[in-house]
Amino acid sequence: MRTLYSIIKITWKLFGSAKFAIGILSIFAVAMIIGTVLESRFGTAYAAKKVYFAGWFFFIQLLILISLIVAVIDRLPFRKKLTGFYTVHAAIVIIILGSIVTRVLGLDGQLVVKKDMESKYVKVNEDILYVQSKDQLVEIDFNKSSLGQSNILYDNSNFRIIKKDYIPYAKSEIIWVPSEDSWGSDWIIKNDQMAEKITLTYPGNQFFSQSAELGPLKIAIISYKDFQEILQPPANEIQVTFKGKLFKLDVKKTRHKVKINQKEYFDVDKVNQQKSGLTFYEIRYQNQIYKFFPKFSIYPIKEHLEVNQQSPFTLKKTSEMMVYGKTQVLISKDQEDIIYCAFQKEKGWVVFKANQQPISLPWMGLEINLLKNKAGLKPVLKYQQGVAHKESEKNIQALNIQVLDKRSNEEQSIWVSDQVKEDLIFKTNQFKVFISAKMVELPFSVKLDEFRMETNPGTMEAASYESFVVSDNKKFHIYMNNPMKLQGYTLYQSSYYQNESGEFESVLSVNKDPGRWIKYIGSLLLVIGLIIHYLVVYKRLFYA
Amino acid sequence: MRSFYLFFVLAFTAMIAQSADSICSNLKLASVPILAEGRIKPLSVHASEFVKKNFKFQCPYSYVEFYCRLSIDDFKENQGACSVRFPVDHQKIKQLLKMTSENFVSPEVIEKRKFEIRTELNNEQAADRAESGYAIALSKILLSYQNYLNLSSGQDWKILDSHGQWIDVAGFLKEKSKKELIDQLLVQGDKLSDADKRKLNYEIIYESLNLFLFSLFIAISGFILSLVSLRLPKFNKAVKILSYILFASLCLSMILRTLISGRAPVTNMFETVLWTAMGVLFFGIWLTLVMKSSLYLVVGFAANVVFLFMMKFATGMLDSAIRPLVPVLRDNFWLSTHVTTITLSYASFALSWFLANYVLIGFIFKKMNPKMINNVNEALRLIIQVGSVLLAAGIILGGIWADYSWGRFWGWDPKETWSLIALIIYMAILHGKYAGWFKDISFTLVNAMGFQFVLMAWFGVNYILASGLHSYGFSQGGSLFLISIFTVQLLIVLLVLWRKKTE
């Protein structure tokens, strides 16, 4: 009994001592140094996983918490001389408690808001396994379950999923397997200065695209039906985007003005080029001229067919404009395995047969040549242990699962990743399995009304951007340092992007933090406590 | 030295101007307002910033005249008089460009090898080495060359047209002559709004005063005089006056920068060094009053000499240009409170570092007695206490700003993590002092070492780790600079330990 008491006493003394505080603070500092080095080498997500949100790091913080509390209790009853000491130590305890509340009850994620669409689901920084069958979508947390004894991730009356292997940082390799209606092909594109091999598949998937880009060229495989359709050019109305707003151009008039707002307008000229028979539109605004060829690109074209992606004006994408900003080369194959290659020349499409001989493209002396025709084959990914990349979007995580379909009593093993949605086909059932970010539903939805962007004078750098949104029948104006607040959630302007049709979509970061005020109170106490503490020291030093 | 050189260049330019007689030779062009890099500024400021950043030129023109001539293509009549050279120091790029021993390459060579450079850069990026020294050097040379092309095609800067809109020089010259361009430039100062006119005038004053050179001069004389005054107290008054002049000069440069940019001058590495220099001097003056010894002014001046040298001459590391802010930082209240608190804490730690090293070096040469060391240790403790309060407050203000603007109080961003590391280190030092671990020279020693963590938080994150939201000042020279400081400090620490053992 006595020994137990003395052990407790010694431990208590140890935890409350300044020497223990120095030791644990030093360990904490070293841990953080490791974290920052890992981050600079392998990226934010990796450092978070290995250090900042790892169990051992929490343990260090727990020891700091204990040390703080014991140090205060040890110096009770209250002495006026130690007011600053009590306040500072209590303040840090409060800040740590506030952080715990944030971690447990808070939400932090991203919401993309679009025009004419209600957005409701917040993407959070956590990946889960999705299993989609005909009638339901099951969300499975594959990280948590691995703590348990068995590796059963999910079990219901229809199917059971067992986790067999998990590679957090995987490397993928492509292998070709037989598949009906699939077509893969290797091509080489070269001129005097360069040669590049590309692989295209039809139908495309997330890891092997139907198209490849090479300088101003975009080379794409499309179905034979689409191929035949695209060669017929339809004529449509033309719309132009400027600072996030759409304006309609009058295609009948040769010259007209389009109003931007009360003060500003831009001029539009329709020009028919006699030589080539092409029609283009000139937009004049602030002494700059932007030439648009609606069939070629959503961007204006400079001399030598160069595309001006810096332009404040862009066209709205139309169905006949398959690829924006690029000159397209289309490839297709008919039933008899004859491969066609088509590209646009001034007067329209030209078509070549590509089975035997190389075809010269009319840009930079390039030549395209079929290397290998892989009819009836499709590419699949094989995963291996890799290394963490600095940019988190380059990281691949791969999960090997065993799925038992209870109706047919069939069992299949499959590798799932965040790269591609895999199909899992049983005799009586069919699933799509994939890894993707977890989505959390908000109690309200948000719709984008207008997106505005201001640039630094004379440049295209964004100086500020702001969103006007509608939610809960109320209007909100969100810009830097002016977030939208609704039902305990705060929505901040985070970034934006332009989608394929040239319209702006706004990215808001969504945050809910019930621990906020606890941390604020702790912070205030900390600064006050430090000042009180050192004023006492200062007085002792100079006025004693 | 520099102004001496400039004088020669100007004199030479004046001579040339008479013989070559270009419309760009007009000396009044220097103060003409133009629009470039998102800001209205005097042509002289932009011309010298632009040229220094991108290439070197060999001809006896001023920056303004050279810049002006290149952008309106005024070299045709005397071609060959001026040659542009891009500096290349990476060995692999020299091989790629088939250069022999020289360190410079002409635009013609780059034009010819542009494709190879781009291919190399693509390969580096594809191999996940986008941040390697090679890749950075490759993209630097491509960028400099692109900037050169922009300038020589008249697209780098804009002037006002007759409708009062900014258009680039090439656009202006499509309809009008070069003569008209110069005439327009000379009168366009009057067409600015009153606010822009005022800012432009402040910038012209700021440029002409050359306050940093003046401050450096004062700091050096102050340092020498204050050293003398330690032995001869009759100079104390002169030292004090010099410290006030230096403080006023730093204040003035800060005020002018605020007036020019319209925001608190705390947005890049250069400005944090400026703030810290001022902070160190402030704490030095304060300690001199409190501790009644001019030792603290010696240290304050020494720190200012170092900082001002960096600001004046380490231009690759500290960019003195005033640029528009990125949108996320556009909040004057938080910017000024958070960054100034943090930099003031850096200032107090910097003072403690210089002070500690003064004592350590004295200790190595057996010039310190225990009483002196203890006196300084008391001051050190006071300084790092002030520094810790400021750093803690600064970190919290940063957290509140982040929470207010982006909804997160703490995100383990390397800059914030390293400032927390620095705070924790000083907390450990203070707890160690309290526990009686660090006595006499040991306390001085840990103080000197503690500042290495501040240096990491201040520069190391940007120059060595270089990632995260705060990475506004990347430069390759920076890491070399830091590593040499760490090495010298380690050497001093080892020497002190050796001296302590032999005593």
How would you describe this protein?
- The complex is a heterodimer of chains A (544) and B (503).
- In chain A, α2 runs antiparallel to α3, α4 (55-74) runs antiparallel to α5 (83-105) and α5 runs antiparallel to α7 (516-543).
- Chain A has 544 residues and is α+β, with helices and mostly antiparallel strands.
- In chain A, strands 1, 2, 3, 23, 24, 25, 26, 27, 28 and 29 form a ten-stranded antiparallel sheet that branches. In chain A, strands 4, 5, 6, 19, 20, 21 and 22 form a seven-stranded antiparallel sheet that branches.
- In chain A, a hairpin with a 4-residue loop joins β23 (422-425) and β24.
- Helices cover 23% and strands 45% of the residues of chain A.
- By secondary structure, chain B is mostly helical.
- Chain B is 70% helix and 5% strand.
- Chain B contains 18 helices and seven strands.
- In chain B, α5 (107-126) crosses α6 (133-152).
- The longest helix of chain B is centred in the last third of the chain and has 37 residues, at 370-406.
- The model of chain B is unreliable at 14-19 and 467-475 (pLDDT under 50).
- The interface between A and B is large, with 64 and 65 residues.
- Give the helix proportion of chain B (percent range): 55-70%
Count of beta strands of chain B: 7
The proportion of strand residues of chain B reads under 5%
Number of strands of chain A: 29
Computed structural class of chain A = alpha+beta
